[in-house]
Specification:
Helix content: 25-40%
Strand order of the largest sheet: 2-3-7-8-11-16-17-18
Largest sheet: 8 strands, antiparallel
Strand content: 25-35%
Number of strands: 18
CATH class: Alpha Beta
Structural class: alpha+beta
Length: 310
């Protein structure tokens, strides 16, 4: 999954005009961009991200997720937001047939470290990979929603919320904008984005990167966009390229023929998770999911073109 290495840094926002307020921040280890004619929008979004950062930023020692990852097996009281996120993660774990798993942080971190070490010329020891693959599993995590508690049966588990948290945070920020009467804005958190309303009467335009350039421009209104792909961040070893996107079921980076998958959905969290899930599980799996949810559109990008599935 290694979501933050995955997420699109290649969606370009093509409808910007001088009359838009365009604000940028750094938060939760990524950039946050807000575009809107309403001057209140950026402050509202930043306030919501700052609040949620203290829950989901596992690198922040003051955050709830950091404390959870330092805990051992047992029962723990959680915030409403973290309960909600883990509940959603369990749903997508089942939907993805195990391809999306937030409990495999140790496996994802191992491959990330391996990929960055230029002295590595061979694949890592298969026994080590198998050991890491067996750590975790969302079936080892039990939620008690009425009590707002989580029970962790395996004390080796470390959570990786990077593949779902930013999409969730974008959705919460958009909800805050709506509650405060902001009708039109673009919220972009490191590539997970939501296009609220319109850009001065016209749909927001989002570019999807192909092999080296923008391959397609899509128009988006009141919907989210997210991408997973191999545009960059590939592991180059022994004259071979390995995806940085890891399938938690096999324990290894996946080998796909497409460069990336862009998903448009009604919620950013949904688009965020499904972009990764579709990249791992492929087009036939995506077709089955989209058949049951007309709010989803997927774009599979190859070196020769783009296939739209809706």
């Amino acid at each position: 999954m290694l979501k933050k290495a995955i997420i699109l840094f290649f969606l370009f926002f093509l409808s910007c005009t001088p009359s838009l307020n365009k604000d940028r921040f750094i938060i939760s280890g990524t950039y946050l961009e807000v575009q809107s004619r309403d001057k209140r929008a950026a402050k509202l979004v930043y306030q919501e991200f700052s609040r949620l950062d203290l829950i989901f930023n596992s690198y922040n020692k003051k955050s709830e997720s950091y404390r959870l990852n330092k805990s051992k097996n047992g029962v723990y009281k959680l915030s409403d937001e973290l309960i909600e996120l883990i509940k959603a993660a369990k749903k997508y774990y089942k939907l993805s047939q195990g391809a999306f798993d937030i409990t495999k942080a140790k496996l994802y971190s191992f491959w990330k470290k391996w990929g960055k070490d230029k002295q590595n010329t061979k694949l890592p020891d298969s026994v080590k990979v198998a050991q890491l693959k067996d750590v975790g599993g969302l079936d080892s995590v039990k939620l008690n929603e009425p009590d707002k508690t989580i029970k962790i049966k395996d004390d080796r588990i470390t959570f990786d919320f990077s593949g779902i948290a930013k999409g969730y945070m974008v959705d919460k920020a958009v909800l805050k904008l709506k509650k405060n009467g902001v009708k039109n804005a673009l919220v972009n958190a490191g590539g997970e984005l939501y296009c609220l309303g319109k850009n001065q009467g016209k749909p927001w335009q989002v570019g999807i990167k192909g092999s080296g350039s923008i391959a397609k421009i899509i128009e988006v209104t009141d919907a989210a966009v997210a991408t997973s792909g191999n545009y960059e961040q590939l592991y180059e070893k022994s004259a071979k390229s390995y995806s940085h996107i890891v399938d938690p079921r096999t324990g290894y980076p996946i080998d796909k023929k497409f460069l990336g998958v862009t998903v448009v959905a009604d919620e950013c969290m949904k688009a965020d998770v499904l972009a990764t899930t579709f990249f791992i599980n492929g087009k036939e799996f995506a077709k089955g999911i989209i058949k049951d949810d007309p709010a989803i559109t997927a774009y599979f990008v190859t070196k020769t073109g783009i296939e739209k599935i809706n």
